[in-house]
Amino acid sequence: MVAASDVRRWHRVQQRLWILEASGEIVKPTEPFHPGELKIQRLVGEEATAKMNGRGISPRVPGAARAFVGKQDLVILGTEDAGKQLWATLVTGTSGFAHVSDDLAHVHVDMHHPTGVLSVAPSLKDLHPSQPIAMLFIELTTRRRLRVNGSLTAVAASALEVHVAQAYAACPKYIQRRQIADQAAIETPIMATGTALTAPLISLFENADTLFIATAGVDGLLDVSHRGGRRGFAELRDGKIRIPDFAGNSMFNTLGNLALDDRAGLCIPDFERSCQWLLTGRAVVRFDVSDSPDKTGGTRRWIEFVPTAWALLPLNVPRTWNFIDSSPFNP
Domain limits at 119? Predict the structure, then answer.
């Protein structure tokens, strides 16, 4: 049975689409972008660049990207829980724990690992076939990344299978290079959940240079994207998290999703303590903010995120990273 809240949310999205189409602010969906993405591209005058970069979006994973995925030891998942809240989660493994064919992606990870992390994680415990999922494979040492969006076709205790709807490489901007540290004994925090922001979480934000954000599109797909910058690039003000939107590939997948669906999830890795903070909530995009343009790299755009719940989650495979260097693109 479809929940009443889901029906209301669908009607709100449809109403926004009808209003935007009637006003001429957006056109009917044109592949590979949905109306929210098209709206933002037009608003900032970057349609031509978006169209050019959008040619790289494919329903199949090219051969070179398959080899790349097969070497990775981590993936960030964008998922929706039973309450329709969005989450972004960092999942670790050993090289080869994930592989893809042209239209299927497999992640072999024990959901009932002795740590019990994934089986109880609020972001992953309710996964089921047919629901949308987003995956971001990212290699921190080389700044290479591949985004794969699709839907789950199978969920088992030790593996996830995903039908690929979109696959494309993303630019290396704003990624801080890191390499895996020697695996000595790691003392990680135990899992915790809450709603109010805590002192450790606030401190992490003040020093974070990397985070991931999950959003949902009206095309039925989820997306998970990397955001990075100098330490403290994301600001916490009056309970709201402000994330600068630096200049990127002009496709505006995240901003386009938020234009029509304000649900979002954040993942902030703690690279030194083998854990991560997950937050779910609502977000809005602010344009032409009055703050110094240096904070946004000149775009004057911020994502303003209001968290409603959080979880502190140890990594399923304990791991820490050593910092190598910052991205040369950081404002």
Answer: 4-181+189-325
